[in-house]
Amino acid sequence: MAFAVAPTKPVVPFDLLEKIDVRVGTIELVEDVKGSDRMVKLTVDFGDRKRTVLVGMKKERANPKEVEGKQALFVVNLEPRKIMSVDSEAMLFDIGYPDGITPVLATPEKPVPNGARAG
Predict the structure, then answer these.
(1) Domain residues of the chain, as ranges?
(2) Buried b or exposed e, range 46-72, using 16+ CB within 10 angstroms
(3) Which of 25, 27, 32, 104 is deepest in the core (most CB within 10 A)?
């Protein structure tokens, strides 16, 4: 596959990176979002609680439900964001979207406890 690597973003102080909370969660349920041809609603188990996460993966996958039961990385300390009248409580940390390639989940190499921190 031909791929042009994007330039590296500007350098940020290490303490800024320490403020971003990336955790592993298991995607338990994938549901359609009514009125959207792009968005699906994930129910994700983070160990201490379940969160709702909206992601635009309908056009990226033939069957978005294929991610049910998979672990992935999520940014969990962002302010909730209302999307399509639903509060999204985290952000899926995927690979490829900004580069124009079909995104894939950022996943641990083997199962780890839900809520485990990355970094």
Answers:
(1) 20-105
(2) beeebbbbbbbbbebeeebeebeeebb
(3) 25
**Which runs of E-coded beta strand occur in the chain?**
22-32, 40-45, 50-55, 71-75, 81-83, 86-88, 91-92, 94-95, 104-105
Fold (topology level) of 20-105: OB fold (Dihydrolipoamide Acetyltransferase, E2P) (2.40.50)
For each successive 10 residues of the chain (119 residues), what is the average pLDDT? Answer: 87 94 98 94 98 94 96 97 94 90 94 96
Question: Residue type for 21, please?
Answer: D
Confidence (pLDDT) at 2: 74
Can you give the pTM of this predicted structure? 0.92
pLDDT score, position 1:
63
Q: Residue holding tokens 């999204």?
A: 88
The type of residue at 111 is P
In angstroms, the CA 35 to CA 38 distance is 9
Reduced to 3 states, what is the DSSP secondary structure of residue 13?
A: coil
Measured between alpha carbons, how far is 25 from 114 in angstroms, rounded to an integer? 5
